[in-house]
Amino acid sequence: MTEFWLISAPGEKTCQQTWDKLMVATTRTNNLSNNNKFNIPDLKVGTLDVLVGLSDELAKLDTFVESVVKKVAQYMADVLEDSRDKVQENLLANGVDLVTYITRFQWDMAKYPIKQSLKNISEIISKQATQIDNDLKARASAYNNLKGNLQNLERKNAGSLLTRSLADIVKKEDFVLDSEYLVTMLAVVPKTSYTDWQKTYETLSDMVVPRSTKLLFEDHDSGLFSVTLFRKAIDDFKHKARENKFTVRDFQYNEEEMKADKEEMTRLSTDKKKQFGPLVRWLKVNFSEAFIAWIHIKALRVFVESVLRYGLPVNFQAMLLQPNKKNMKKLREVLSDLYKHLDSSAAIIDPSMDIPGLNLSQQEYYPYVYYKIDCNLLDFKV
């Protein structure tokens, strides 16, 4: 399971005792979860007012950074297109998979110096996440434009004969060129109507050159036929062809234009390949940065909430539980029993109840500090 519960409880005589109690209750006898200590360093506490304000700010920042993490992960999946099974192996934090990173979490002192105030640390994270978000928008926009233009050109060169580009199908010798009076037209004829075409094309207008039709190309449904006629008969020929369910394509042979189209396609294809490698590298690096920042916010939230709930001096044990999927309800009950003494009001508060002044409907409330971390960051299952 990719879901984790990050909780904290006050230290008994020592924090080790708190840990041991949790282990006995959840793993030794009933295998409800896999647990790890979650190491939070000695952060600067600051004043109570600051902590209360910070608690709200961190909640918003948590939501924002999680959204950035998901956006980068989802865009990685979009960019990797046909190799979506490779997405997970590119979503790493500090070079290790996400579960390993979380279960062995160590505070990054270089990025987030603990001598700084909690407010400053949260601002460092906020700036970092905003920068990644802005960069992602710019890079995604540039790459998507390129990809979109290439797809449009590819679409023009595929599809049915009624709509596709004919540049790679026709040749110069298929056309009467530079004639004052004659012109070569192209008609799309359903395969079931080939015989009708051969019988009728010369009579669709007065000025069709006899025996001038030639089959140039076929797809599943239709064939592309050339036919030569006098220029003054073009409109009449088109009208009669339409009545007979033959579609005349508006096409003029222009070597320069066709060459330019092919060159544009080659250029876009080369550009896309050139940008692909650096973009994937950027996504890998910045996914790691954003994910690490996100888990540090979780650590900050646990710290702030634990001090607000359990008081000073700082004395709590943060613990990371990976619930066994089948036993999640049971695990909740065991944790409730273990920690109900921490908050007598929690026992009578039902999170689904809407009590004025208590904003509990927005989040789950338990007598212990609790935050969920879900590592399934993609909209699809790989």
UniProtKB/TrEMBL annotation:
The keyword Transport applies. Coiled coil: none annotated. One of its GO terms (cellular component) is vacuolar proton-transporting V-type ATPase, V1 domain. Keywords: Acetylation, Hydrogen ion transport, Ion transport, Transport. The keyword Endoplasmic reticulum does not apply. Pfam families: V-ATPase_C. Subunit of the V1 complex of vacuolar(H+)-ATPase (V-ATPase), a multisubunit enzyme composed of a peripheral complex (V1) that hydrolyzes ATP and a membrane integral complex (V0) that translocates protons. V-ATPase is responsible for acidifying and maintaining the pH of intracellular compartments and in some cell types, is targeted to the plasma membrane, where it is responsible for acidifying the extracellular environment. Subunit C is necessary for the assembly of the catalytic sector of the enzyme and is likely to have a specific function in its catalytic activity. V-ATPase is a heteromultimeric enzyme made up of two complexes: the ATP-hydrolytic V1 complex and the proton translocation V0 complex. The V1 complex consists of three catalytic AB heterodimers that form a heterohexamer, three peripheral stalks each consisting of EG heterodimers, one central rotor including subunits D and F, and the regulatory subunits C and H. The proton translocation complex V0 consists of the proton transport subunit a, a ring of proteolipid subunits c9c'', rotary subunit d, subunits e and f, and two accessory subunits. This is V-type proton ATPase subunit C. It comes from Scomber scombrus. The lineage of its organism: Eukaryota, Metazoa, Chordata, Craniata, Vertebrata.
